[in-house]
Amino acid sequence: MGGWASDYIYRKTGNLVRARSNLIMLAFAGAALCVAPVIFVSHNVNIVVACLSGALFFLELMTGPMWTVPMDIAPDYAGTASGLMNTGSAIASILTPIVFGVVVHVTGNWNIPFIGSFAFLAMGCALATQIKPDIRVQTGIENKQSVPNFL
């Protein structure tokens, strides 16, 4: 959905910032807004499930635009950026449940990890304003004569 929406916005407006950065900000903000009620309504499982499902939707909405940003900024190094993104995602996927469990075990409070999640999502929304997909990084590969041809 995020890739489709990003491509649609870009085709309609021709504006990479709207298609990538603004959509990423919307996704972070939407996920944060969906996580916030979980902190206050933890006694109603149906509301918690709906809110966490909404948060997951918004996080997945971010996936497409986030993967296209390296191709917009530095296409010659998009593979390296993809590897770093995969590594970061894998490390976060491994550590998050452990940290969540440790925090709940130590504090006895299920709200603290969700407050932390909300804070990280809000920080991500703020930092997404710094993504400039319309400014290409000068990589030095543009001068193909300086790159040895091994093929």
Tell me what you see in this structure.
- This protein has helices at 2-13, 16-40, 45-73, 78-107, 111-127.
- The protein has 151 residues and is mostly helical.
- The chain is globular, with a radius of gyration of 19 Å.
- The chain starts with a helix and ends in a 24-residue tail after the last helix.
Report how far apart the termini are: 38 Å
Strand content: under 5%
Alpha plus pi helix count: 5
Which of globular, elongated, flat, extended, rod-shaped describes the shape? globular
Largest sheet: none
Name the helix and strand elements from N-terminus to C-terminus, one letter apiece: HHHHH
Unreliable residue runs: none
β-strand number: 0
Please bin the fraction of helical residues: over 70%
Structural class: mainly alpha
Radius of gyration: 19 Å
Secondary-structure blueprint of this entry?
Blueprint (H helix, E strand, L loop, with lengths): L1 H12 L2 H25 L4 H29 L4 H30 L3 H17 L24
Helix pairs in contact: 1-2, 1-3, 2-3, 2-5, 3-4
